[in-house]
Design goal:
- The complex is a heterodimer of chains A (about 150) and B (about 45).
- Helix content of chain A is about 25%, strand content about 35%.
- Chain A is α+β, with helices and mostly antiparallel strands and about 150 residues long.
- In chain A, strands 1, 2, 3, 4, 5, 6, 7 and 8 form an 8-stranded mixed sheet that branches.
- Chain B has about 45 residues and is mainly α.
- Chain B contains 2 helices and no strands.
- Classes of the chains: A alpha+beta (about 150), B mainly alpha (about 45).
- Chains A and B meet through strand 2, strand 3, strand 4, strand 5 and strand 6 of A and helix 1 and helix 2 of B.
């Protein structure tokens, strides 16, 4: 075929895991979304609340007082995802500075438990990512499975 | 109790994912991914 054609982007694939955050007051559907990036084997992770009208938000505060359980569930989901996609690298960042700090603190706390399964790197704008250090601020994180 | 949307914080899934993906792609574009793969693999072998 010799006709001219338009350049096209890589296809974007999305893998979703839903779970419910439950408290005495309410149930909130949470969704972890893994999306293919422009780079092979690199996926973006997003954690969002799903509302009854189908809309989602990554900035609302659920206020279900179960942040630890929610993040433990996300770690389990990451583990499940990486057992399916063995070569995957997962990149993620908080939707604001407070969440970014929270993720850093939680990763630091969980490192002794997860470092035999995962490799965690912290990334900076313009600089090569480094092995995660608990007291270092990062712009984003990258996780892969130990192979 | 139903969860109700709060004005201006809700988007459709596509919008949220697009926005986050754009940020991630911008970060990844600036780094040497081969080096990153190698560094992470080396660390996993230790």
């Amino acid at each position: 075929m010799e006709e001219n054609y338009y350049p096209f982007e890589r296809p974007i694939s999305e893998i979703r895991y839903n779970f419910k955050s439950v408290s005495a007051e309410r149930e909130v559907v949470k969704r972890v979304i893994f999306t293919t990036s422009d780079y092979q084997d690199f996926y973006n992770l997003a954690l969002v609340d799903v509302f009854d009208d189908g809309s989602v938000s990554d900035i609302t505060e659920t206020r279900n007082k179960d942040m630890i359980a929610v993040l433990a569930t996300v770690i389990k989901i990451v583990e499940e995802f990486l057992s399916q996609y063995l070569k995957a690298f997962i990149a993620f960042q908080g939707s604001d500075k407070r969440r970014q700090r929270l993720y850093r603190l939680l990763l630091g706390r969980e490192m002794p438990k997860i470092q035999n399964k995962f490799i965690v790197f912290g990334g900076f704008d313009d600089l090569q990512p480094e092995s995660f250090r608990p007291n270092q601020e990062y712009d984003y994180f990258i996780i892969s499975k130990i192979r | 109790m139903k969860t109700k949307p709060i004005a201006n914080t809700h988007k459709n899934s596509y919008q949220v994912v697009e926005e986050k993906l754009r940020v991630t792609n911008a970060y990844l574009k600036k780094i040497d991914l081969n080096q990153l793969r190698e560094n992470m693999e080396q660390l996993g072998k230790k």
